Amino acid sequence: MMIQCIALVWLVAPLSLWRVEAAPGNYTRDDLAVSFPTHVGNVALIEASRAWRRGLRTHVVIGGGIDVEALRITGGPQGESYTQLPRFPGHPVVIGHALAPLFALEAIRDFKWLLLGDDDTICKCRVPPAVLQLINEAGLNADDPHLLHDFLFYCSNPSKIDDCSGPIDVDRRCLPCPAGAKSCPCRLPPGCTQPDNWAFHNCSQRARVVVYGGVGVIYSVGLLRKMAADPSFYFSLVFRDVVPSEPWAVLVTSPMAP
Ligand SMILES: *[C@@H]1O[C@H](CO)[C@@H](O)[C@H](O)[C@H]1NC(C)=O
Ligand SMILES: *[C@@H]1O[C@H](CO)[C@@H](O)[C@H](O)[C@H]1NC(C)=O
Which keywords appear in this protein's UniProt record, sorted alphabetically (predicted)? Predict the structure, then answer.
């Protein structure tokens, strides 16, 4: 057994050198992964979207009431992996959406960018090429922490949590980029980084800014690794924030700026 393993590693190692290392400006479908949460009623979408997902590894987060082993058998050869989630009492089902990025990182590992969205919104064949074009034209490096999104909601009334305005395509809290930089990671002023989501009174925007995950969020692997570095960090944030008393319909708070 041991000898077989060594022989396999020896064979695989030289082969892996043949693939040109992905670089900023040059990311391809091999570097992009997709993840979406779904449920038993939408399983037809998994099958129907296989053609456009060809060559893209996909992590599906799915609820109960379905034989996930059967899905693994049909989907595995198509690059699909699955996490089956129970219902968490006290948390709405969109918690599967919030957890999907870290499950995808764990299941797929060697991707550079992750596109997360709803099963019926990101399942469009024109989306992955547009995502790659956006990332490559901006010259972004996947090892840096990036979250790209253009559908933010601003919630400014803690006593009326669904009173949010949007969609708004920029996070107005971000400090300006250094002079001459085409793009830069968003850095929040100190008044905008309070652990209490509603403590925005010293922030340049007096609102809680939330990402609407359903329409598509792009994560770099660099950001996902930071989110996963302390195993309790992101999970405790999700279980704290994805509750009925928060604007969970518009998903979890954008992760903290680096
Ligand atoms: C992308 O890859 C091609 C082919 O390997 C190479 O010629 C080109 O210089 C690369 N571009 C960037 C921006 O790295
Ligand atoms: C805002 O700043 C003031 C003065 O520094 C401080 O007393 C207050 O606690 C801060 N409020 C929040 C919500 O951070």
Answer: Signal
